[in-house]
Amino acid sequence: RTSNDIVLPGALAEAYQLDGALGSGAFGTVWRATHIDSGELVAIKVIERTRQLVEDFRLELNEAEILKSLDHPNIVQLKELAADPSGDGCFLVMELVDGGHLQASLDEHGAYEDAHAAEIFRQVAEAVAYLHARNITHRDIKPENILFVRGAGLTVKLTDFGMSTMKDGKLTTLCGTPSYCAPELLLGDGYGKAVDMWSLGVLAFVLVCAALPFVSSTREGLFEKIKKGGYEFPSTKQVSTTAQDLITRLLKTNPMQRYSSREALQHPWLTGDDGLATTHN
Ligand code: ADP
Ligand code: MG
Questions:
Q1: Which residues pair with 94 in a beta bridge?
Q2: pLDDT at 8
Q3: Torsion, CA 217, CA 221, CA 226, CA 227, rounded to 10
Q4: pLDDT digits (tens, 9 = 90+) for 237-273
């Protein structure tokens, strides 16, 4: 796709100049753009929708108004939102966060050393705590949705937030990576904010191990493993006992026993006041 294929709706077309594609995922493509008057660089996510879903889509546009009011240093700021006049699409104008996503970094460099993993994890946990305090469940926490701020060290921002409300029960099969799905989501008898805490558990594991806790060659096999909740830390990696402790408290199959975002933020792995010697990689 080139930017010539995308037609911005009236008001956006006058205000922004599309520059090029930044990335794409299950729900559309994200473009780099420039606000013509201010010169500010932004990212515009184009969500394409099929006609059958237009009804639900209107409701989601209202939810997006709430997302616009979110303001947190570790959450990508949503600036503007516009519907395609044809009703088939939606355009989200966001702050540009162009230091690449965490998955790319993990693929390139492997696991993070303990302190760096904790620093990245803490910021995502802060973002999730902020969302949860506002009754928003992200539902798609994974390294591809965590972006580095260019030139700002390990500073990260969570993206793709709230739009995951589109990914309700009917649409879970569309999700690209089921590896981060909580067991209760797979069981299909209702779920809440705790699904994000499970995904954070998988994220913490991935940060320190550069491997997923639940792996199978088939989707069914993977779902079985997640529902059982059995996993092991790779013998080749020396994961600190503090990191292991937090991961264990997040990867609880029973959502009632799982740590909340507040509890996670108070854990010694993130506060550093452990009192005990910590093993580093
Ligand atoms: P999807 O729902 O399709 O997964 P995302 O919102 O995750 O869409 O965006 C897909 C990709 O686009 C991300 O993995 C990232 O590479 C890029 N991207 C998303 N938001 C931004 C942003 N605000 N700034 C820069 N790149 C972004
Ligand atoms: Mg995404």
A1: 43, 78
A2: 75
A3: 180
A4: 889 999 999 999 999 999 999 999 999 999 999 998 7
Mean pLDDT of 163-172: 44
Longest dimension (CA), the chain: 60
What ipTM was estimated for this complex?
Answer: 0.96
pTM of the model: 0.88
Mutate to test the pocket of ligand 1, among 67, 68, 159 (most ligand atoms within 8 A of CB): 159
Which residues lie across from 17 on neighbouring strands? 34
pLDDT, one tens digit per residue, over 39-93 is: 999 999 887 764 434 445 554 555 667 778 899 999 999 898 877 776 667 788 9
How close are the terminal C-alpha atoms of the chain, in Å?
43
* Atom 20, ligand 1: residue with shortest CA distance: 159
Q: Is 160 annotated as a binding residue?
A: yes
DSSP string covering 71-134: --TTBPPEEEEEE-TTSSEEEEEEE---S-BHHHHHHHH-SPPHHHHHHHHHHHHHHHHHHHHT
Q: Is 22 in the pocket of ligand 1 (CB under 6 A)?
A: yes
Q: Is 144 in the pocket of ligand 1 (CB under 6 A)?
A: yes
Bridge partners of 90, per DSSP, are: 47, 83
Whose atoms come closest to the Cα of 161: which ligand? 1
CA dist 259 → 56, 62, 90, 152, 266 (Å): 32, 30, 35, 29, 10
Residue 173: burial class (beta carbons within 10 Å; 0-12, 13-18, 19+): exposed
DSSP state for residue 52 in the 8-state scheme = G
